[in-house]
Amino acid sequence: MADKIVIHWFRRDLRLEDNHALYQALKSGYPVMPIFIFDREILDKLEDRDDRRVSYLHHVLSDLQSRMRKSGSELQVYYGQPRDIFKKIIADHDIHAVYVNEDYEPYAQSRDDEIAKILDDAGAAFHLHKDHVVFAKDEVTKDDGNPYVVFTPYSKKWRARLEQEGLPHYKSENSLDKLYKTKDRKEIPSLALMGFEQTEFDFPDLVPDKKTVLAYSDNRNFPAIKGTTRLGVHLRFGTISVRRLASMTESWSFTFVNELCWRDFYSQILWHFPHTVDEAFRPKYDTIPWRSDEGEFEAWCKGETGYELVDAGMRELRHTGFMHNRVRMLVASFLTKHLLLDWRLGERHFARYLMDFDLASNVGGWQWAAGCGTDAAPYFRIFNPESQLKKFDKSMVYCRKWIPEIDDLNYINHKIVDHKFARQRALDTYKAALNA
Predict the structure, then answer these.
(1) Stretch 385-393: mean pLDDT, rounded?
(2) What is the pTM of this model?
(3) Residue 309 falls within a domain, yes or no?
(4) pLDDT at res. 2
(5) Are residues 289 and 419 in the same domain?
């Protein structure tokens, strides 16, 4: 058996620059073998064989592979169950330790516990590092050590800590010569082998546009203009360092950095309260008698509600894997308040299609819209889709892009529910359930 090596297991950190766990692995004194696992536990649950995110991952891994080969190394990409993959790696190599960046999602937690046990039995260590958030799950807490469940006091302490401490830069990119050297080429498993199809996707820039960020506060609510960076997909898969992004934009826009703070907030909520994936953070809200109407849910999914801004957003999501954040709030409010359909239905629909899907933010956002989450919108806050349209897409530029039949009488005269009626029904239903 060859000399001891360590492993860096890429997961939500698909970059060579400012990668915390990779940096620590490269400092270990052992050659570093980089690996990635197409996890069947995740892939087998995807509903669509043309899922854009799998094509995106394949593209990013191909780029990483090319860069590593220039250093004489090879990204080892596997397809299967992580436990089986690691048993094989342990049998083939003398592993001193495995370095990974933390993931707070419940499945990731249980998977990591299992892999840590397998490694421990083999005499190897499992090192976890903070990387996908600015501050970890227990770094910004109340004075008594308990987690914040309201955003404003959390954000004040988060910003104070950011200002006082700054953010490190882990110069992993400077030590790539320490990667495990091999001439054996291991091709990345093809999409076809894994049962997926190649799909097209919009690949956003890795570097935030400074003009966009400077004007973020003024422009971010208007879906027809380039008012957001669309960096969510890069943050989700770690193709950009959140530390680098926060450091770069801190002096450009308070509002933009606030969105990074929200991301940390929801991440620590998921870690401290994992039951919120399926249950309301506020238990009383699980008593709401959600309606069951497959026809109305299907109309919402397809963007056929008759409300222009709702429909445009839902169609954009299906067509591109992206939806503007202002529109996300509106369509979520519409599903849970106008249609009185369970927020979990919408959360799972977003999970199916969003390129930048992040469980913590998705669950947090949906529970906010439904009124049942941490720091949520009160149940009596119900967006008026027509008022939102007049305010944020008055010239209908965004809506016309996604609704070709927008001027047809059949579309104009068809709304699946009357706003005034729906609003009152929601108020009565929520009030009755919460006061019971």
Answers:
(1) 98
(2) 0.95
(3) yes
(4) 57
(5) yes
